[in-house]
Amino acid sequence: MSTPTTYVYAFAEGSREMAGLLGGKGAGLAEMTRLGLPVPPGFTVTTEACKVYLATGEEPPELGVEEARALAALEGAMGRTLGAADDPLLVSVRSGARFSMPGMMETILDIGLNDQSVTGLAKASGRERFAWDSYRRLVQMFGRIVMGVDGDLFEQAIAAHKAQRGTRDDHDLDAGELALITEESKAIIRQETGEDFPQNPVEQLQRAIRAVFDSWNGERARLYRRREHIPDALGTAVNVQAMVFGNLGPDSGTGVAFTRDPATGARGMYGDYLPDAQGEDVVSGVRDAVPLSELKILDPRSYVELGDHLRTLENRYRDLCDVEFTVERGRLWILQTRVGKRTAEASFRIAHDLCEEKTITADEALARVDGAELSRLMFPRFDTTPADVPLAHGVPASPGAAVGVVVFDSAEAQRRAAAGEKTILVRRETTPDDLPGMIAAQAVLTSRGGKTSHAAVVARGMGKVCVCGAESLTVDPVARRLTTDSGVVVREGDILSVDGTAGTVHLGALPLTASDVGRALETGGSTGSLTEAVLAALAHADRVRRLQVRANADTPEDAARARRLGAQGIGLCRTEHMFLGDRRTLVEAMILARDDTAREEALATLLPLQREDFIGILTAMDGLPVTIRLIDPPLHEFLPDRTALAVRLASATHPDVHDRELLDAVERLHEQNPMLGLRGVRLGLAVPGLMAMQVRAIAEAVVHRLRVGGRPHAEIMIPLVGTVEELRLARTESERVLAEVTAETGESLHLPIGTMIELPRAALTAGRIADAADFFSFGTNDLTQTTWGLSRDDAEASFFPLYLGKGIFSVSPFETIDQEGVGKLVELAVEAGRAVNPGLETGVCGEHGGDPESIHFFHRAGLDYVSCSPFRIPAARLEAGRAALTETETSDSR
């Protein structure tokens, strides 16, 4: 007999470990209650109830009974009744997903107020204005969130009264005006929906809970989940909590506190406090909060008590905690805690400091940072001088440097970004509806709000540059301009530079310079606490990782830089890149050769140039493996554009004979689908001498390095193999050349010869191919194209945005490997190849080799190395270490 499902838990019945069921917020409330912190009582409706509701459109039959029982217990604990006419109990209804989704779902405050209880609240509190302001908030929030009324209609009602009063501040409206606004808002609801604002408190509560459930599938919530890779199936919990009020006068207030600075990671209490206000006033940024340190002056006892609670929470969670609190007439209440979102800089510093403090282990510190954050820290910063006077100063909410054209709404940011333009989204304050524009923009700039505003929290979570609270800027979204206090006007389309580290805004485009972290990673030296933290994390990752990290590099300069950044060799050296520039004419000569003699002369001219290229790269990577891929693209790519040639010939008075020969060659080599045409191993087998020339250049470069005391480790890679017969023919040709060079020089050459697995057939027949290969290197760019049957360049410019928007792709398969399709081919090929050749080395050299999520997959698939561009090597090293930790955790849990 199955155990009945429980859909409602009192805070005292839950725990931190129940986050999957209670959501992050509910689990935090339960944990704080268990710790004895001053938490207003309440209960949580579980994610399981949400899943049933979203799947069926109906709440579970048992839910109503459980909610009624929990509400009765809450009323008993508070000694008040929901919506009573004399001294009413009011509750908040808040979302609470398993993973933090700040501002993406709904919250409704002051549930329980109606035309009778508002009078009781005024009498019980002794503040008539407070009561009507609370009722006004409920009517407008309920109308917008639950009943679907356009929120601008309510804003217009408030704005009209403020204009009549001649003020811009809601606080200047008295109780009578707020009562009128409340009645006008109810009339708006009636006009827009055909029904009245509900007066029954229990109906308010039930409809509010359903509205929060519905908000899980709201547009902004779905967009946020896609960006953060949060599964759609999780659902949200709903937290019903007794209201406490920060808007009861100067001895009350509300705030958000962090146990450490979420922007820099520095130790100490950080946050914002807003006297005589409710919580949404802080987050929305409609009023400018004061630094949390001001609370020490305004209410010393609450400040000290808050500090004690913050230390308790950080000790319990062993991490940065984000805490919402309210002071109600001198009494401190803790409303919420969660592990706080932070910038990349703060992630590394906090993890390192907690490890140094012995609060967490080195493994835990490594698990708390990631490669995407490290990549952001390597981004350039502005190279400013004392003469670079900022246009404005604000709160440095999320660090980094960004340059772009100014836009004033989300739609314009998306439109320009789709056209390839970099933008700066400028708003008075952002709301959750601005999320698409924040994603599209390079940076976010607001004239209101602080480090805990919506803009700051969301930007930090996304790694976007953000400056908030630039109060000297007047933002006019209607006129599409901003104006500084000194009279400077910036219009849409003008260029701004936003420094999220310094909190400054500059007119025009500032020059960029390398980051301190990037320099430190190349030199190995530490220039401060941040670089020290980064180097410590990388050092531990290097100690624990199994995957090697190699580089995709085609020049000695790239190879040297990659080595400085920690590369353990080159996994992909593309020889075709060496044929570009001033060598293109030599390739043209080879293509245009009319007989074997002319072609051999052209190849003989290319040979010493290729040899010198390989000598430089082998020198830079001395002692480490260098995998050299023979020429891969079709020959037409080395010839001029057909249309340009035809126009040049048609317009010439005396057409050039060489141009005519080139055009003939272009037309002869033209293919309907060159990606699937004469390229890779096919080209090497079809053009006599081409493969032999490249192999000889590699062999002679190895001999040169050996004779000067080097330790060259060159490997020869045959591209685009689809059948073992192709590889055997290419291997025979390569071994013949190696034997020739051995005979000529007396140096014994036994270079590994392997292949790229970039066709589904190669993966499916990997067991046969492995019989002729010393190594496999997965070219996941082409393997993705050929598995999906699409062209990357065409697809990303045409239907990819549609597929991402409709959720067909959660992420581009060229950005993160498609584990269900392409990944299965990789796993199959590794298993089949090693069954035939146990010593088979396997790696990946496509762009996925530098993608954090893909690296974890390659670790699980048993590959030996990943290879990526030099800039991505530090992040790949970090993720390879984190992948090893994840494997250890999985093993330990079995």
What does this structure look like?
By secondary structure, the protein is an alpha/beta fold. Helices cover 47% and strands 17% of the residues. The strands form 6 sheets. An 8-stranded mixed sheet has the order 12-22-21-14-15-16-17-13. It has an 8-stranded parallel barrel with strand order 24-25-26-27-28-29-30-31, surrounded by 6 helices. Strands 1-2-5-3-4 form a 5-stranded antiparallel sheet. Mean pLDDT is 89; it is low at 890-894. The chain has 36 helices and 31 strands. α19 packs across α20, α23 (596-620) packs parallel to α27 (690-707) and α27 crosses α28 (724-745). It starts with 7 loop residues before the first strand and ends with a helix.
The main sheet orders its strands as: 12-22-21-14-15-16-17-13
- Shape descriptor reads elongated
Q: Report how far apart the termini are.
A: 28 Å
Per DSSP E runs of 2 or more residues, the count of β-strands stands at 31
Strand content: 15-25%
Helix coverage percent: 40-55%
Radius of gyration from the CA trace?
32 Å
Q: Could you name the ranges where pLDDT drops below 50 across 5 or more consecutive residues?
A: 890-894
In DSSP terms (H or I, runs of 4 or more residues), the helix count works out at 36
Please summarize the sheet with the most strands: 8 strands, mixed
Mean pLDDT: 89
> What structural category arises from helix and sheet content?
alpha/beta
What is the compact description of this entry?
The chain has 894 residues and is of the alpha/beta class. The chain is 47% helix and 17% strand. Mean pLDDT is 89; it is low at 890-894.
